[in-house]
Amino acid sequence: DIQMTQSPSTLSASVGDRVSITCRASQSISSWLAWYQQKPGKAPKLLIYKASNLESGVPSRFSGSGSGTEFTLTISSLQPDDLGTYYCQQYYTYSTFGQGTKVEI
Amino acid sequence: VQLVETGGGLIQPGGSLRLSCAASGFTVSSNYMSWLRQAPGKGLEWVSIIYTGDSTYYADSVKGRFTISRDTSKNTLYLQINYLRAEDTAVYYCARLRGDSWFFDYWGQGTLVTVSS
Fold first, then answer.
1. What are phi and psi of A53, to 5 degrees?
2. CB nearest to A87's CB, from B44, B57, B109
3. How far B90 CA sits from the closest chain A CA (Å)?
4. Chain A contacts of B43, Cβ < 8 Å?
5. Where are the beta strands (DSSP E) in A8-95?
6. pLDDT in tens, B82-91
7. Per-residue pLDDT at B54
8. Alpha carbons B85 and B34: distance in angstroms, whole number
9. What is the Cα–Cα distance from A68 to A81, expressed in whole angstroms?
């Protein structure tokens, strides 16, 4: 099984900050990676697919980069609505998720 | 596009349950569909997938106990869960996949399954 490891587990930042979340795969997954945002009590929402493709309707302050085993989700200017937990997901082989990164503002 | 899960509840260990996911705005049988789950306070876990051609796949943790299916006439996805264990306690989500890529572009709101005596 491919293991996905996110860091940090928790991130505290201020409105307007540039923040980054890292996701590492236990083996190469090419660019088969997605990012999701989950707000408390809600279903996850797709943000990024194929490592760097922004889902339609998602604000342009979100961006994704990386390939192989290391990936990054960046929020260029953190907004109050961005609080929640962020998950990476590999879909190179079946599907596995990272453990999540909680973003606090 | 909307997905609405129903069927969750409190069930004793060893029991069975069938979860339903009613879809609107698209055709279930024309899309890859999945079930995922999230234990309380934990992360996301992929559970099962059904392809447009009826092939199905399961996570090792549920293989042999869970069955994914769909009803074309009702545009509904199902998950039959047998031999429930305490560790199956979770919110269960149905989700649509984007084409034949295994990422999930639409999710339901989830239904809670609690396994306890």
1. -90, 120
2. B44
3. 13
4. 87, 97-100
5. 10-12, 19-25, 33-38, 45-49, 53-54, 62-67, 70-75, 84-90
6. 999 999 999 9
7. 86
8. 21
9. 30
